[in-house]
Write a structure and sequence with these properties.
alpha/beta, two-stranded antiparallel ribbon, 8 helices, 198 residues, 7 strands, binds zinc ion, five-stranded mixed sheet
């Protein structure tokens, strides 16, 4: 049964597909949007479409960027022999916010999860191994402290160590099950400085 106009129902339906948005929040958002000035709604719609159309993967580290190669990979002030492996671009941003990491990154876009049917080929792992051929000295694994993150870390370590490259993992201090994104900079920095050999 439709209580609302079909346009409103459609908007609520689309919004409720977003993570963390239940039907109630979707309804609140939909009515909020309807009350917004027309120009502001256009800006919002435009920002969504243009982000989707213009953002692409960096050809080296696979972070999301506007260019073929992201500013970090492009920079000659970064240490290209140290690669930090993270699960997503938000984790990269969290480390960048500390301003204290000077290496480069590799973004996996996920983690291995047998439960969810996500295997090594479903994340940017082959791409990482390809990069390691250019005299990389250290791979720092900064996957999340979840079961999936730990599984991924162990898998990467097993692949990379035989290549004669140092493999380290950020120290605990990052809460177990915690999303790196929500950890404050000081904690992240301590975890990075206290990284341990794998
Ligand atoms: Zn890059």
């Amino acid at each position: 049964m439709d209580y609302y106009s079909s346009h409103i129902s459609k908007l609520i339906e689309e919004l409720s597909r977003l993570p963390g948005i239940g039907p109630k929040s979707a309804g609140r958002l939909a009515f909020h949007i309807l009350n917004m000035p027309k120009e502001q709604v256009a800006e919002l719609a435009n920002a969504i479409t243009s982000a989707k159309e213009n953002v692409k993967y960096c050809k080296e580290c696979f972070t999301l960027t506007d260019d073929e190669i992201c500013p970090i990979c492009k920079s000659d002030r970064r240490d290209h022999k140290t690669i930090m492996v993270v699960e997503n671009t938000r984790d990269l941003a969290a480390y960048e916010k500390t301003g204290q990491y000077h290496g480069v990154y590799h973004v996996l876009h996920g983690a291995i999860s047998p439960m969810q049917g996500i295997g090594p080929n479903d994340i940017k792992l082959k791409e990482l191994i390809m990069r390691l051929k250019d005299n990389v000295e250290e791979v720092i694994i900064s996957t999340n402290s979840t079961l999936e993150g730990e599984t991924t870390a162990a898998y990467i370590s097993k692949l990379v160590k035989p290549m004669g490259i140092k493999v380290t993992k950020i120290a605990s201090g990052v809460p177990v099950g915690g999303d790196l994104e929500y950890v404050d900079s000081v904690t992240l920095l301590k975890a990075l400085q206290g990284r341990v050999d794998m």
